[in-house]
Amino acid sequence: MNFLAHIALASHDADAMLGALLGDFASRSEAALLPAAIQREIHLHRLVDTFTDQHPEVLAMKAGFDSPARRYAGILLDIYFDLLLTRHWDLWYAQSRTAMIADFYQHLQYREALLPPRLQSLLPRMVREDWLASYGHWAGLERAVRRTASRLSRHGEHLIAGLPHLQAQDSVLEQGFLRFYPELIQHTETQRQHLLLTSP
Predict the structure, then answer these.
(1) 88, 5 Cβ separation under 8 angstroms
(2) pLDDT tens digits, 83-106
(3) What angle do CA 60, 159, 86 make, to 5 degrees?
(4) In 4-162, which ranges are E strands?
(5) What contacts 31, CB < 8 A, 6 or more positions away?
């Protein structure tokens, strides 16, 4: 899952959402220095990714991509799922997406000293360009895919080559997401309760 989905799946308190984002940025050694609540959400972030990668609906979506884009289908779908989440936000969340994103950016800036260097360097651009909201429309999704492709060590063009498939199969992928995401919400909550019971 991508940034918006991870933050939405977190407990909607500030440090939990911060931990949900840090799952993509904090190394194990960096995470070990953070407060326990944030460490727990970093761990939960990784459980969410594992569940997503192994879910039958997601595996079926990945299989629909032509080679060589299929190799990068997981990355494409992670970003695309934020667009679908935006489209159907009100099905699952009472707080508006706009309000949640604004609260999150404010806390992210407030806790900047806790952030790993790579996220600190990205923070001004993330807020200025409103990355979390931008995933909700096609132009923003395409920019995110191109940003990601530029960071790959090679074959970023194969990632970009998968974009037409997302557009062409939008309705099919959307239906798969609508079946998958409620199961992900339930799984995340189950894992959160387990971590709360077993964490020191």
Answers:
(1) no
(2) 999 999 999 999 999 999 999 999
(3) 65
(4) none
(5) 22, 38, 39, 42
- pLDDT tens digit string along 126-183? 999 999 999 999 999 999 999 999 888 778 888 899 999 999 999 999 999 999 999 9
Neighbours of 91 (CB within 10 A): 10
What pTM was estimated for this model as a whole?
0.92
Residues with Cβ < 8 Å from 12, sequence gap 6 or more? 95, 100
In one-letter notation, the amino acid at residue 160 is: I
* Token duo for residue 3: 């940034």
How far are the Cα atoms of 22, 113, 130, 166 from residue 169, in angstroms, in the given order? 31, 42, 27, 5
Instruction: State both tokens at 143.
Output: 């920019």
Structure tokens at 71: 């190799």
